[in-house]
Amino acid sequence: MSVKEYSDMIIRVIRYNLKVVFAGKFFWFLLAAFLFFAFFMFQQAWNRVEINEGSVYNLLLFPCLLLIFYPVVFGIQNDEDNRILEIIFGIPNYRYKVWGVRMLMMYVANFFILLLFGYVARLLLYPVNISEMAFQLLFPMLFFGNLAFMFSTITRSGNGTAVIMIVLGLALFIFMRGNRQLSLSYWNIFLNPFATPSEIHPLIWQNTILKSRIFLVIGAVVWLMIGFLNLQRREKFV
Protein backbone atom coordinates (compact mmCIF):
# COMPACT_ATOMS: atom_id res chain seq x y z
CA MET A 1 0.00 0.00 0.00
CA SER A 2 1.41 3.36 -1.05
CA VAL A 3 1.69 6.36 1.28
CA LYS A 4 -1.12 8.14 -0.60
CA GLU A 5 -3.46 5.15 -0.34
CA TYR A 6 -2.64 4.75 3.35
CA SER A 7 -3.27 8.45 4.08
CA ASP A 8 -6.57 8.32 2.14
CA MET A 9 -7.65 5.32 4.20
CA ILE A 10 -6.78 7.11 7.47
CA ILE A 11 -8.79 10.17 6.39
CA ARG A 12 -11.81 8.00 5.52
CA VAL A 13 -11.61 6.23 8.89
CA ILE A 14 -11.44 9.56 10.73
CA ARG A 15 -14.40 10.97 8.79
CA TYR A 16 -16.48 7.87 9.41
CA ASN A 17 -15.77 7.82 13.14
CA LEU A 18 -16.47 11.54 13.49
CA LYS A 19 -19.78 11.02 11.71
CA VAL A 20 -20.72 8.18 14.06
CA VAL A 21 -19.54 9.91 17.23
CA PHE A 22 -21.14 13.28 16.64
CA ALA A 23 -24.21 11.78 14.92
CA GLY A 24 -25.16 15.07 13.29
CA LYS A 25 -26.10 16.62 16.64
CA PHE A 26 -22.74 17.94 17.79
CA PHE A 27 -23.38 21.23 15.96
CA TRP A 28 -26.22 22.01 18.37
CA PHE A 29 -24.01 21.37 21.40
CA LEU A 30 -21.30 23.52 19.82
CA LEU A 31 -23.85 26.27 19.22
CA ALA A 32 -25.17 25.95 22.80
CA ALA A 33 -21.62 26.11 24.19
CA PHE A 34 -20.89 29.27 22.22
CA LEU A 35 -24.19 30.89 23.21
CA PHE A 36 -23.53 30.17 26.90
CA PHE A 37 -20.02 31.56 26.50
CA ALA A 38 -21.33 34.68 24.73
CA PHE A 39 -24.03 35.19 27.38
CA PHE A 40 -21.52 34.90 30.23
CA MET A 41 -19.19 37.35 28.47
CA PHE A 42 -22.01 39.84 27.96
CA GLN A 43 -23.11 39.46 31.58
CA GLN A 44 -19.62 40.18 32.91
CA ALA A 45 -19.19 43.16 30.59
CA TRP A 46 -22.66 44.53 31.48
CA ASN A 47 -22.05 44.23 35.23
CA ARG A 48 -18.54 45.64 34.81
CA VAL A 49 -17.01 42.76 36.72
CA GLU A 50 -13.23 42.76 36.97
CA ILE A 51 -11.96 40.56 34.17
CA ASN A 52 -8.68 38.65 34.28
CA GLU A 53 -7.33 35.25 33.27
CA GLY A 54 -9.10 33.59 36.19
CA SER A 55 -12.51 34.92 35.17
CA VAL A 56 -11.93 33.91 31.53
CA TYR A 57 -11.09 30.36 32.70
CA ASN A 58 -14.36 30.24 34.64
CA LEU A 59 -16.23 31.49 31.57
CA LEU A 60 -14.75 28.73 29.41
CA LEU A 61 -15.13 25.89 31.90
CA PHE A 62 -18.85 25.24 31.36
CA PRO A 63 -18.67 25.39 27.51
CA CYS A 64 -15.60 23.12 27.75
CA LEU A 65 -17.58 20.43 29.60
CA LEU A 66 -20.63 20.91 27.39
CA LEU A 67 -18.55 20.25 24.25
CA ILE A 68 -17.49 16.81 25.48
CA PHE A 69 -20.90 15.96 26.95
CA TYR A 70 -22.81 14.67 23.92
CA PRO A 71 -20.19 12.55 22.07
CA VAL A 72 -19.12 10.73 25.24
CA VAL A 73 -22.47 10.33 27.00
CA PHE A 74 -24.38 9.11 23.92
CA GLY A 75 -21.51 7.34 22.15
CA ILE A 76 -22.39 3.73 22.99
CA GLN A 77 -26.10 4.40 22.55
CA ASN A 78 -25.41 5.84 19.08
CA ASP A 79 -23.47 2.66 18.20
CA GLU A 80 -26.43 0.59 19.32
CA ASP A 81 -28.93 2.76 17.42
CA ASN A 82 -26.81 2.55 14.26
CA ARG A 83 -26.62 -1.27 14.55
CA ILE A 84 -22.82 -1.30 14.61
CA LEU A 85 -22.35 -2.34 18.24
CA GLU A 86 -22.57 -6.01 17.24
CA ILE A 87 -19.93 -5.48 14.55
CA ILE A 88 -17.55 -3.78 16.99
CA PHE A 89 -17.88 -6.61 19.51
CA GLY A 90 -17.57 -9.21 16.78
CA ILE A 91 -13.87 -8.45 16.26
CA PRO A 92 -11.60 -9.36 19.24
CA ASN A 93 -10.12 -6.29 20.99
CA TYR A 94 -11.29 -4.08 18.11
CA ARG A 95 -13.68 -2.22 20.39
CA TYR A 96 -10.73 -0.85 22.39
CA LYS A 97 -9.08 0.52 19.25
CA VAL A 98 -12.35 2.02 18.01
CA TRP A 99 -13.16 3.80 21.25
CA GLY A 100 -9.53 4.77 21.86
CA VAL A 101 -9.37 6.49 18.47
CA ARG A 102 -12.78 8.09 18.98
CA MET A 103 -11.90 9.49 22.39
CA LEU A 104 -8.65 10.89 21.00
CA MET A 105 -10.50 12.57 18.11
CA MET A 106 -13.08 14.06 20.50
CA TYR A 107 -10.44 15.66 22.70
CA VAL A 108 -8.34 16.94 19.79
CA ALA A 109 -11.39 18.47 18.09
CA ASN A 110 -12.58 20.09 21.32
CA PHE A 111 -9.08 21.40 22.05
CA PHE A 112 -9.09 23.34 18.79
CA ILE A 113 -12.60 24.62 19.53
CA LEU A 114 -11.35 25.86 22.92
CA LEU A 115 -8.52 27.63 21.13
CA LEU A 116 -11.14 29.40 19.02
CA PHE A 117 -13.20 30.34 22.09
CA GLY A 118 -10.04 31.56 23.81
CA TYR A 119 -9.24 33.72 20.79
CA VAL A 120 -12.71 35.28 20.98
CA ALA A 121 -12.18 35.96 24.71
CA ARG A 122 -8.79 37.49 23.92
CA LEU A 123 -10.34 39.86 21.40
CA LEU A 124 -13.37 40.88 23.44
CA LEU A 125 -12.39 40.54 27.11
CA TYR A 126 -8.81 40.06 28.17
CA PRO A 127 -5.44 39.26 26.52
CA VAL A 128 -5.16 35.68 27.75
CA ASN A 129 -2.58 33.13 26.66
CA ILE A 130 -4.83 31.09 24.35
CA SER A 131 -2.78 27.90 24.19
CA GLU A 132 -2.17 27.80 27.97
CA MET A 133 -5.85 28.45 28.67
CA ALA A 134 -6.95 25.62 26.36
CA PHE A 135 -4.27 23.31 27.78
CA GLN A 136 -5.43 23.87 31.37
CA LEU A 137 -9.05 23.25 30.37
CA LEU A 138 -8.06 19.87 28.93
CA PHE A 139 -7.58 18.42 32.42
CA PRO A 140 -11.18 18.80 33.69
CA MET A 141 -12.37 17.84 30.20
CA LEU A 142 -10.40 14.57 30.34
CA PHE A 143 -11.56 13.85 33.89
CA PHE A 144 -15.27 14.39 33.27
CA GLY A 145 -15.17 13.01 29.73
CA ASN A 146 -13.66 9.69 30.79
CA LEU A 147 -15.92 9.59 33.86
CA ALA A 148 -18.95 9.95 31.57
CA PHE A 149 -17.55 7.24 29.29
CA MET A 150 -17.22 4.90 32.27
CA PHE A 151 -20.83 5.52 33.33
CA SER A 152 -22.01 5.01 29.75
CA THR A 153 -20.48 1.52 29.77
CA ILE A 154 -22.41 0.78 32.97
CA THR A 155 -25.83 2.20 32.08
CA ARG A 156 -25.62 1.65 28.27
CA SER A 157 -28.10 4.54 28.09
CA GLY A 158 -27.32 8.06 26.98
CA ASN A 159 -30.19 9.55 28.97
CA GLY A 160 -29.25 7.58 32.09
CA THR A 161 -25.62 8.65 31.85
CA ALA A 162 -26.67 12.26 31.25
CA VAL A 163 -28.79 12.30 34.42
CA ILE A 164 -25.94 10.79 36.49
CA MET A 165 -23.37 13.25 35.16
CA ILE A 166 -25.59 16.31 35.65
CA VAL A 167 -26.53 15.37 39.22
CA LEU A 168 -22.96 14.38 40.08
CA GLY A 169 -21.50 17.49 38.48
CA LEU A 170 -23.86 19.83 40.33
CA ALA A 171 -23.27 18.03 43.64
CA LEU A 172 -19.48 18.23 43.25
CA PHE A 173 -19.65 21.90 42.22
CA ILE A 174 -21.78 22.87 45.24
CA PHE A 175 -19.67 20.78 47.62
CA MET A 176 -16.34 22.12 46.35
CA ARG A 177 -17.47 25.74 46.36
CA GLY A 178 -19.12 25.42 49.77
CA ASN A 179 -15.87 24.52 51.53
CA ARG A 180 -13.28 27.30 51.31
CA GLN A 181 -10.36 25.12 52.39
CA LEU A 182 -11.28 22.32 49.98
CA SER A 183 -11.88 24.73 47.10
CA LEU A 184 -8.25 25.91 47.33
CA SER A 185 -6.80 22.40 47.57
CA TYR A 186 -5.67 20.10 44.77
CA TRP A 187 -8.70 17.90 45.47
CA ASN A 188 -10.93 20.54 43.90
CA ILE A 189 -11.88 19.20 40.48
CA PHE A 190 -12.87 22.71 39.37
CA LEU A 191 -9.68 24.36 40.63
CA ASN A 192 -8.95 27.55 38.70
CA PRO A 193 -5.17 27.66 38.06
CA PHE A 194 -5.32 31.32 37.02
CA ALA A 195 -7.01 32.61 40.20
CA THR A 196 -4.14 32.90 42.67
CA PRO A 197 -5.46 33.43 46.24
CA SER A 198 -3.93 36.40 48.05
CA GLU A 199 -3.39 34.39 51.26
CA ILE A 200 -1.34 31.64 49.55
CA HIS A 201 2.28 32.01 48.49
CA PRO A 202 2.70 31.77 44.67
CA LEU A 203 5.16 28.85 44.95
CA ILE A 204 2.75 26.89 47.15
CA TRP A 205 -0.05 27.69 44.68
CA GLN A 206 2.01 26.41 41.74
CA ASN A 207 2.62 23.19 43.64
CA THR A 208 -1.11 22.90 44.33
CA ILE A 209 -1.87 23.34 40.63
CA LEU A 210 0.64 20.64 39.68
CA LYS A 211 -0.86 18.19 42.18
CA SER A 212 -4.36 19.05 40.95
CA ARG A 213 -3.46 18.29 37.33
CA ILE A 214 -1.77 15.01 38.33
CA PHE A 215 -4.88 14.07 40.30
CA LEU A 216 -7.15 14.81 37.33
CA VAL A 217 -4.95 12.85 34.90
CA ILE A 218 -4.82 9.82 37.22
CA GLY A 219 -8.58 9.99 37.68
CA ALA A 220 -9.10 10.23 33.91
CA VAL A 221 -6.88 7.19 33.29
CA VAL A 222 -8.69 5.17 35.97
CA TRP A 223 -12.14 6.01 34.54
CA LEU A 224 -10.96 5.11 31.02
CA MET A 225 -9.51 1.77 32.14
CA ILE A 226 -12.69 0.88 34.03
CA GLY A 227 -14.71 1.76 30.94
CA PHE A 228 -12.55 -0.48 28.75
CA LEU A 229 -12.82 -3.30 31.29
CA ASN A 230 -16.61 -2.96 31.24
CA LEU A 231 -16.48 -3.38 27.45
CA GLN A 232 -15.18 -6.93 27.99
CA ARG A 233 -18.70 -7.97 29.02
CA ARG A 234 -19.89 -8.59 25.50
CA GLU A 235 -23.19 -10.22 26.53
CA LYS A 236 -24.16 -7.05 28.40
CA PHE A 237 -24.03 -4.88 25.28
CA VAL A 238 -25.06 -7.19 22.44
TrEMBL record:
The keyword Transmembrane applies. It comes from the Bacteria. The chain crosses the membrane at residues 20-42, 54-76, 104-121, 133-151, 158-176, 214-231. Keywords: Membrane, Transmembrane, Transmembrane helix. This is Putative membrane protein. It comes from Petrimonas mucosa. The lineage of its organism: Bacteria, Pseudomonadati, Bacteroidota, Bacteroidia, Bacteroidales.
